[in-house]
């Protein structure tokens, strides 16, 4: 079966004026236009292509790579808005259509949006939606505390950064746990800090809890070595000063220097910490 909105590995059946006809084991056939055909090939070769619909709503193959696949999220640029809806640049010739009813808020030409790609059951067409919450669920969680996960930042508020976790769940990085510049559309590794009783998920960018102590301790030791063995930071330093200097919370800093102190690697003085030679 040739799958719409996904990469398919198909067999080259024949070459014609429009391009190469590709087929699967069930004798389904799709056209790969000449401009996308490989420089060298033989009939019977296999080729991996992305399948979507052309301007006449017919399945068509391309070797271009879209910015998102079926049932996934992407950060897309709005190329145009017409009386029918919005059109997004998703890396292919034909732009992705987002109907007005699927816009979380009215889209504007030139802006960027988090968009989900799905197949409309009524028309069997690939369409986009910026109403991301309806494609996410936290009822049946597939993650646990301290798991490493992949996140997509959806929007920033005064409370923190809202994120999509592994393309399935919703989460939040609280503002006090953000120690680097992150923006809407950023993808990165992160960690489950805490799963609350209502299944809301707290996310951090550093390994949470006791697992972060050793990496932070090593980091501080490296900073001490680079600074000649002394840093003017201690357990009474202001949180903002620690954050600006080391990019970590005061709580993480205190745990880390505690580890270094117990290992007899540093001396904690009134005006800072000193590396023991």
Secondary-structure blueprint of this entry?
Elements: E1 7-15, E2 19-23, E3 29-33, E4 46-53, E5 59-62, E6 73-81, E7 85-89, E8 96-99, E9 112-119, E10 126-129, E11 148-156, E12 160-165, E13 169-174, E14 187-195, E15 201-204, H1 213-226, E16 230-231, H2 239-246, H3 250-262, E17 266-269, E18 272-275
Antiparallel strand pairs: 1-2, 1-4, 2-3, 4-5, 6-7, 6-9, 7-8, 9-10, 11-12, 11-14, 12-13, 14-15, 16-18, 17-18
Features:
277 residues; mainly beta; OB fold (Dihydrolipoamide Acetyltransferase, E2P); 4 domains; 5-stranded antiparallel β-sheet; 18 strands; 13% helix; 38% strand
Which fold name is given in CATH as the topology of the largest domain? Arc Repressor Mutant, subunit A
What is the CATH first-level class name of the largest domain? Mainly Alpha
Give the averaged pLDDT, no decimals. Answer: 93
Q: Record the strand order, biggest sheet.
A: 3-2-1-4-5
Shape: elongated
Helix fraction, binned, reads: 10-25%
Q: Nearest-angstrom radius of gyration?
A: 25 Å
Low-confidence spans: none
The CATH superfamily of the largest domain is: Winged helix-like DNA-binding domain superfamily/Winged helix DNA-binding domain
Question: Which structural class fits the helix and strand makeup?
Answer: mainly beta
Write the element-wise H/E pattern from the N-terminal end onward: EEEEEEEEEEEEEEEHEHHEE
N→C terminal distance: 66 Å
CATH 2nd-level architecture of the largest domain: Orthogonal Bundle
User: What is the total number of structural domains?
Assistant: 4
* Strand percentage: 35-45%
């Amino acid at each position: 079966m040739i799958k719409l909105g996904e990469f398919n590995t198909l067999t080259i059946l024949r070459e014609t004026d429009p391009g190469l006809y590709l087929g699967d084991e069930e004798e389904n056939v799709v056209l790969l236009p000449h401009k996308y055909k490989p420089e060298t090939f033989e009939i019977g070769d296999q080729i991996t292509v992305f399948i979507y619909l052309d301007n006449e709503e017919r399945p068509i193959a391309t070797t271009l790579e879209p910015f998102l696949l079926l049932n996934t999220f992407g950060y897309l640029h709005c190329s145009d808005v017409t009386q029918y809806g919005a059109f997004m640049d998703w890396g292919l010739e034909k732009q992705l259509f987002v109907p007005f009813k699927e816009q979380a808020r009215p889209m504007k030409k030139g802006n960027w949006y988090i968009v989900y790609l799905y197949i409309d059951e009524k028309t069997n067409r690939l369409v986009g939606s910026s109403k991301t919450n309806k494609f996410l669920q936290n009822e049946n969680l597939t993650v646990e505390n301290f798991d490493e996960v992949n996140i997509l930042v959806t929007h920033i508020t005064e409370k923190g950064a809202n994120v999509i976790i592994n393309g399935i769940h919703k989460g939040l990085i609280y503002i006090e746990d953000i120690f680097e510049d992150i923006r809407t559309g950023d993808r990165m590794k992160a960690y489950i800090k805490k799963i609350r009783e209502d299944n809301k998920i707290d996310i951090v960018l550093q390994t949470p809890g006791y697992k972060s102590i050793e990496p932070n301790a090593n980091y501080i030791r490296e900073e001490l070595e680079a600074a000649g063995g002394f840093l003017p930071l201690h357990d009474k330093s202001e949180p903002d000063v620690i954050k600006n200097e080391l990019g970590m919370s005061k709580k993480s800093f205190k745990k880390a220097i505690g580890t270094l102190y117990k290992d007899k690697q540093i001396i904690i003085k009134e005006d800072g910490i000193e590396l023991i030679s």
